[in-house]
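A student in our group prepared the protein record below, which I am reviewing. Here is the record exactly as it was handed to me.
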Amino acid sequence: MRDGDIKLTREHPEVNIRHIVRGIARRGLRPARPKASISLRLDVDVLNWFKSQGRGYQTRMNAVLRAFKDASL
């Protein structure tokens, strides 16, 4: 089959490499914990600092909060 013979549809879109890489990276790992979506008010400078660190800033914020929780036990 040639690339031109492939019909792309909404149900079968062109491959997304990020989706494939995430699936490979998660293989063999414990399932990710479920997350809760919340609204949170933060000081602007704190939020800007986390955002300035690049992509994944919400994950890093979660890690900081988890470390604080674990240290408080």
Summary: The chain has one domain: 3-71. The mean pLDDT is 84. The helical segments are 17-26, 44-52, 57-71. The chain is about 45% helix and 0% strand.
